Amino acid sequence: MKNRIFSFFGIFLIFFACSVSFFTGCMSSRQETNFCSRNLLDKGIKNKEQLTSFFMSVSPDSSREQVKRLASLYIEESNIEGINSDCAFVQMCLETGFLKFGNLVKPEMHNYCGLGAIDKDHPGEWFETERLGVRAHIQHLQAYATPAEVSLKQELVDPRYSWVHKTKMAATVFDLAGQWATDKEYGRKLDSLLSKLEKF
């Protein structure tokens, strides 16, 4: 009788332990899946639908087709150069005011990160297509995130790449504050947008 009790108790303990392990494993996987890394060289986790839904939740009057198109380009170009597409996409959102623009850079410039935008005499760089504009953005991030000996996978389209690649370094979105932008809160703003993106 005692052996049966101990045997039943042992089976119960094994079942309980497995259940706890499975539950915590699921919770851990869920947390890891939802977390958007702030590291510029990590791989983004959000697909084009998730990026688009996030964008539209903030700017519902925007063209969904254009946003989805840009989301695809950001994922494609980021994967080629080894850049975090989640970070790049939210930076585009911040820099363009969710494609509202309104400052020096105009929509037709296909400049999604404020490249070269200084003043009225220097309103920023122009790119012929959406893809080239996104590529220039990704290349500029790659210039910040990698040492000078790391080369690009694609032909250079970012006219400010070489100078940055030799003079600046940023491992995370927080490191971009005071470097990419003079705004000391720049990294925190990107972090806030990534936190919102994590919900999609």
The H/E string reads HHHHHHH
Terminal Cα span? 55 Å
Low-confidence stretches: 2-31
Radius of gyration: 22 Å
Give an overview in words.
- The chain has 200 residues and is mostly helical.
- Helices cover 55% and strands 0% of the residues.
- It has helices spanning 2-34, 48-58, 64-81, 85-96, 130-145, 161-167, 186-197.
- The longest helix has 33 residues, at 2-34.
- The radius of gyration is 22 Å and the shape is globular.
- It starts with a helix and ends with a helix.
Topology of helices and strands:
Layout: H1 2-34, H2 48-58, H3 64-81, H4 85-96, H5 130-145, H6 161-167, H7 186-197
Helix pairs in contact: 2-3, 3-4, 3-5, 4-7, 5-6
Defining traits:
single chain, 200 residues, mainly alpha, 7 helices, 55% helix, globular, disordered N terminus
Nutshell version of this structure?
This protein has helices at 2-34, 48-58, 64-81, 85-96, 130-145, 161-167, 186-197. The chain has 200 residues and is an all-alpha fold.
